[in-house]
Amino acid sequence: MIYYSKVSYTLLSVVFIVFFGPLIPNYINDGFNTNMFLMTLALIILFGLILHMFFNTTYKIQNEKLYIKCGFIKYRPVNIGEMKKVSKSSNIISSPAASFDRIEIRYGKFEELIISPKHKTKFVEDLQKINPEIINNL
Questions:
Q1: How much is the pLDDT for 114?
Q2: Among residues 75, 122, 130, which one has the least CA distance to residue 97?
Q3: 92 pLDDT exceeds 90?
Q4: How far is residue 116's CA from residue 106's CA, in Å, rounded to a whole number?
Q5: Going by C-beta distance under 8 Å and a sequence separation of 6 or more, which residues neighbour residue 118?
Q6: Name one GO biological process term (predicted).
Q7: DSSP 8-state secondary structure symbol assigned to residue 93
Q8: Residue 123 near residue 134 (C-beta atoms within 8 A)
Q9: Could you tell me which residues come within 8 angstroms of residue 79 by beta carbon, excluding any fewer than 6 positions away?
Q10: Does residue 100 register a pLDDT over 90?
């Protein structure tokens, strides 16, 4: 089963403003020139890669493992049998989550994973089908 990450358009808007906001005064003061064009083009390409990551973050449950892919980046699979607890999280730490509506998965001895599946309840239910001992604190 594949779950897509929930996407926060507010977060995406903030990233857009941070990327392109500083260009506005430069265009007003200096006008359109080759350097500004190249800078804008580079930022558009970089923002396109960020968009790709936002809309292509997936969480795949297969063969009793959780596979996480964020754009072009693949994370090490997590054994669902080692998962102990799932709970809501407001942690803003960098993670494969395109939204601030996140869940934290504790597994192994002291490890944790923060993700943001669109359908959290169904996602946790599918995890619990494989490992019924997972504590659900959503």
A1: 94
A2: 75
A3: no
A4: 14
A5: 3, 4, 5, 6
A6: bacteriocin immunity
A7: S
A8: no
A9: 64, 65, 107
A10: no
Q: Cα-atom radius of gyration of the chain, to the nearest Å?
A: 19
Of 61, 78, 56, nearest in space to 123 by CA: 61
Task: Give per-residue burial for 36-74: e unless 16+ CB within 10 Å, then b.
Answer: eeeebeeeeeebeeebebbeebbbebeeeebbbbbbeee
Q: Which residues contact 122 (CB under 8 A, 6 or more apart)?
A: 3
Contacts of 41 (CB under 8 A, 6+ apart): none
Position 49, amino acid? L
Give the pLDDT mean for 68-88. 95
| Range list of H helices, the chain | 9-20, 23-30, 34-55, 120-130
pLDDT band at 4 (very low <50, low <70, confident <90, very high): very high
Domains, the chain, ordered by start: 1-138 (2.30.29)
d(CA 126, CA 10): 29
